[in-house]
Amino acid sequence: MKTNRPSMSWRPPWWIAVGMALGLVVLSAVSRDGGGVNLLNALVRFANFVVIPGISYGCQLALGALGVTLIYAVMRFSDFAHADTMAFGAMGVILVTRVLQGMGISAGPLPTALLALPFGILGAVILALVLDRTVYRFYRQQRAAPVTFVIASIGAMFVTNGLVRLIIGPGDQRFADGTRFIVRVQAFKEMTGLSEGLALRTTHVITLVVAVIVVLGLFFFLNRTPLGKAMRAYADNEDLALLSGINPERVALWTWIIAATLATIAGTLYGLDKSFKPFTYFQLLLPIFASAIVGGIGKPLGAIVGGFVVAFSEIAFTYPYRKILGYLGFEADGLVQLLSTDYKFAVCFIILVVVLIWRPRGIFQGRVI
Amino acid sequence: MKPGMGRPFWLALAMVIALVAVGVLQSWNVALAILNLQLISAVMALGINIQWGYAGLFNFGIMGFTALGGLAAVLVAMPPVAEAWAAGGRGMATAAVTLAGTAAVIWALHRVVKVKALRRPAMALVFVVGLALTRSFYSPSVAAIEAVDSSVTGFLGGLGLPIMVSWLAGGALAAAVAWVIGRITLGLQSDYLAIATLGISAALVAVLRNEDWLARGVKNVTTLPRPVPYEQDLHGQDWFVDLSAQVGMDPSLLSGLVVKALYALLFGSVLLVLFWLSHRALHSPWGRMMRAIRDNRDAAEAMGKDVTRRHLQVFVLGSAVVGIAGAMLVTLNGQFTPASYAPFRYTFLIWVMVIVGGSGNNGGAILGGFLIWFLWVQAEAGGPWLMTLLTSGLQEGTSLRQHLLNVAPHMRQLVMGCILLMVLRLSPRGLLPEQSGKHNLAQRRNGTERS
């Protein structure tokens, strides 16, 4: 579809209908026996199973998508090796974590992996730079077509994936240590007297905090430092940037460094939250691309918003709402699950297609490939 | 340097020698097993070459079309399960009708209602109601179907036709799905198309894994009929025992070889037919038009070519070829295992074949299929061998050595990546580059080849 509509206009009837429906639901819940407590229970359950995991997964996707979008903005190709770069960085973190644990060094209540993070970043940066020197730079100098870069990135994906499998093996790795929970379900129940518990895991909080710090740092770098400005200038208009004396090699170098850093952080946070398995990381490629495209490829802010859109859709579409509806006064027979959990990739893909058809440049009007 | 006729000949000869070497050094059984998968890989590579080499379409959904071909094999060749049809057939049909009705009503609303503020809520309402209605028929029927003797069947079964029919059916099914996908995604440019098709293939495989009523999902369909005789039937017969005595081989060994050779004959003839067809297509006015569209889309459009329609056409054709290969693969394995469809093996490896072989050159794609599959198999075997050699200095039983030996088969990913990168760098147009009248156009697209 080549319709290029102006930005979405506000459509009042749509939102009024949704608002009224929500109001009815709240009213029906409050008017039952138990009243407000049921509503609170529903909210807590929703927060515990949808909102908190969604925020955490969204942060991880956003960090991954930021790397993809930066590489796209500067080098103009979709890096299919990015998910495997995440795995490579996380692998470095795991190996150093094991060494640190062996030496008896820990970060107290925090996971040891946070101490190992710089080493993992270093490993991923070295890999990215070696690949850039041996593979991508040649095509950059030749000014090869973007498809050549994509195919080269598939080669890089094979190599990185092979390295990860060779070094750490294809199996499952758990490396989260330290305190597991900040708030436990039992403690929450006792504290509030509700029948639903809310668990706040350390990894969720760490994910959020680290992601916020990294994103703030990235935006400061892109907007305030000379190098960041040079990068954005190069992304906007290559020829003009070259004319004004920006060194393209330096821009490429720093793009790879930043992308590899973001990838390692995203990979480590994902691994801490769930677990590390090379194949699972490879499968993250799709949601990450979906996030970058939904937000508008080439736009850092878009990558973040896209990450959250994809994460929340994946979780919200595959969560069984039976108990929540029960609290709100609707008894249901089935699980009230829109899609089975195995369809999370399908959800990703549907969002992707819907966005590509109706808003081909994404939410934030990124580039048209 | 323009490669003459010599290069394809020598490369093909080298491939034959390599296979014979495997036959002599390892075993003929292994060599024939490799050959069969090489033939299937070559068909897949041919399909992708039709899309990428002729038209420049970036299809990363090969895995999905392969799986669809496999599904066709199940739906065509398995005997129908009468109890399952009785239990849930009617409900399934009703669900299908409701779903189609919902889609029709939504489409009609989209066309008829002109007031925008009304249209979207109305469409959303019909969508939700229609989906709920469909589900109310669908879920009980699924449960009923899956309950029918779930350890053996638990699905609707197929048509009970000979499995060779499924090769055509696999092509047709893949083509039909490709048509729908193409209508949605072909407006997208290169990278987007690649990512969208990657997503579609993941979604398709997710459907095959989870919809047990269709093809048993991850419970697998394991008893597919064969187009060739079974080994035990062969060596039970007198003439065969006589034959093996004459050749001087054990009957059980010989029967395995004969069965594999029969498969190879079938696959080889399919490959030859497809190669002939695609060769004729490429060197026809249609093929020249496709290359013109690929090399300069705007100019072709200005000359009155309907680019979108031609893209859709070539997308459907290429996917159909992949679907045929998918059905042949399941026929060879004798089982349909949705969990085994992984993008590395079924999407990216095929891409390596096309790029290494030579995109735009049918012979190149076939050579790529043969060569890369050979290396993929041999790297799995060669990895541990090399690792044993490398770690022979380490002490027996150290954990490092053990770890290295365990992960050694994964060396093949690394090997494939290095081969792809090296070919892309040193011979960017592949081992057998495209040969067309306008040499420089192809060069401009694929980068210059250093000679």
Walk me through the structure.
The complex is a heterodimer of chains A (369) and B (451). Chain A is an all-alpha fold and 369 residues long. Chain A has helices spanning 12-30, 36-75, 82-103, 113-142, 146-168, 185-192, 202-224, 226-236, 238-243, 248-273, 278-283, 285-295, 300-318, 322-327, 344-358; strands at residues 181-183, 200-201. Chain A is globular, with a radius of gyration of 22 Å. Chain A starts with 11 loop residues before the first helix and ends in an 11-residue tail after the last helix. Chain B folds into two domains: 25-80 and 157-387 and 398-436, ABC transporter involved in vitamin B12 uptake, BtuC, CATH 1.10.3470; 81-156. Helices cover 75% and strands 0% of the residues of chain B. Chain B has 19 helices and no strands. Chain B is globular, with a radius of gyration of 25 Å. The termini of chain B are close together. The interface between A and B is large, with 61 and 57 residues.
Oligomer: heterodimer
Helix content of chain A: over 70%
In spatial order, strands of the major sheet of chain A run: 1-2
Nearest-integer average pLDDT of chain A: 87
Number of helical segments with 4 or more residues of chain B: 19
Number of domains of chain A: 1
Total of DSSP H or I helical runs spanning 4+ residues of chain A: 15
Q: What's the gist of this structure?
A:
Chain A is mainly α and 369 residues long. Chain A has helices at 12-30, 36-75, 82-103, 113-142, 146-168, 185-192, 202-224, 226-236, 238-243, 248-273, 278-283, 285-295, 300-318, 322-327, 344-358; strands at 181-183, 200-201.
Element layout with pairings:
The complex is a heterodimer of chains A (369) and B (451).
Chain A: H1 12-30, H2 36-75, H3 82-103, H4 113-142, H5 146-168, E1 181-183, H6 185-192, E2 200-201, H7 202-224, H8 226-236, H9 238-243, H10 248-273, H11 278-283, H12 285-295, H13 300-318, H14 322-327, H15 344-358
Antiparallel strand pairs in A: 1-2
Helix pairs in contact in A: 2-7, 2-10, 2-12, 2-13, 3-4, 3-5, 3-10, 4-5, 4-10, 7-8, 7-10, 8-10, 12-13, 12-15, 13-15
Chain B: H1 6-25, H2 28-55, H3 62-77, H4 82-112, H5 116-147, H6 165-185, H7 190-210, H8 212-215, H9 231-234, H10 238-247, H11 251-282, H12 285-295, H13 297-302, H14 307-333, H15 343-357, H16 362-390, H17 399-407, H18 411-426, H19 439-446
Helix pairs in contact in B: 1-2, 1-16, 2-11, 2-14, 2-15, 2-16, 3-6, 3-7, 3-14, 4-5, 6-14, 15-16, 15-18, 16-18
